[in-house]
Amino acid sequence: MADDIPARMVYAGHRWRVTDTPTRLRESIWSAPLESHHGLYGWRFQATSDAGDSLVFDVYRERDHWHVHHTYT
Q1: Is the pLDDT of residue 54 over 70?
Q2: Is residue 46 part of a domain?
Q3: Is residue 52 part of a domain?
Q4: What total number of domains does the chain contain?
Q5: Which domain holds residue 34?
Q6: What is the pTM of this model?
Q7: Alpha carbon separation from 15 to 5, 35, 56, 58 (Å, rounded)
Q8: In whole angstroms, how far apart are CA 28 and each of 2, 23, 38, 68?
Q9: Which band of pLDDT confidence, cut at 50, 70 and 90, is reported for residue 25?
Q10: Is 55 within a domain?
């Protein structure tokens, strides 16, 4: 995170750099029950690996870590 906005991450054993402007996602878009994820929020962003592969990620914060909910090619 940089200024509370996603900037980079490690996913599937690879480093990814955020390469667009992340969009904040609110509770209403998640399929997880809200009772188990109070205050759930996340981000959607495109990221590019060091190898040059790009994916769009939906990620959300769960307690003390981030979870990749879905990826799009």
Answers
A1: yes
A2: yes
A3: yes
A4: 1
A5: 8-72
A6: 0.81
A7: 17, 32, 14, 16
A8: 25, 14, 12, 17
A9: confident
A10: yes
Strand, helix or coil at 34? helix
* Residue 62, φ and ψ in degrees, nearest 5: -130, 105
Report whether pLDDT(39) > 80: no
Upper half-sphere CA count for residue 19 (Cβ side, 13 Å):
13
Whether the CB-CB separation of 64 and 70 falls below 8 Å is answered with: no
Beta-carbon contacts of 50 under 8 Å, excluding residues fewer than 6 positions away, are: 14, 15, 17
The residues near 58 (Cβ < 8 Å, ≥ 6 apart) are: 25, 42, 43, 44, 68, 69, 70, 71
Round to whole Å and give the CA distance between 38 and 61.
Answer: 11
Residue 1 lies in a domain: no
Instruction: Name the more confident of 48 and 62.
Output: 48
